[in-house]
């Protein structure tokens, strides 16, 4: 992995290297269970060593890395966990003062991780004033997730996958505030992205079985 200095070189006419702009990926990862929590990490190096942030890092564009590959690498290397599905871009943050090391444009993605992922905390416990604007980034991403769930295909599939249940949908909606089962069911039944099947699945060992909904967006 290149250093930030090495990866932030642009070339002007006349071949004079100058510092340009970094492109990074910040991951808002929620645990894949009925009480989703957000994964945070403790920074291992300067700046802000020991402080809590979102998992994030530079996009290795020089190696042909995609945003999804970058998110997978970040979660594996910095959070010690794997993603359970894909990612969806929910924001691009370009505040030039966000990172004291230089102008860094952040691609913000949402994703799911296993329920046992370390570093997971309730969304209500996101620390105030995390470095790099991560508090604002995390809260904005969660709001956009609630707005796009069952509306935007990419966001929905990244968070719910090929199959889901009412309990799983309600759990995600509850991240931004209490949602009744009736409100969640109405939203799920009205979405063109999932079709209810006759298959039943228990949301938890002690829960009542619920219908499985299958993702239907895209070519048949």
TrEMBL record:
Designated name of the protein: NUDIX hydrolase
Keywords, ordered alphabetically: Hydrolase
MF-aspect GO terms: hydrolase activity
PANTHER family: ADP-RIBOSE PYROPHOSPHATASE, DIHYDRONEOPTERIN TRIPHOSPHATE DIPHOSPHATASE
Keyword Transcription in annotation: no
Protein's UniProt keywords contain Membrane: no
CDD domains in alphabetical order: NUDIX_NadM_like (cd18873)
Protein's organism: Mycobacteroides chelonae (Mycobacterium chelonae)
All copies of domain Nudix hydrolase, residue ranges: 23-116
The family this protein is said to belong to: Belongs to the Nudix hydrolase family.
Domain of life: Bacteria
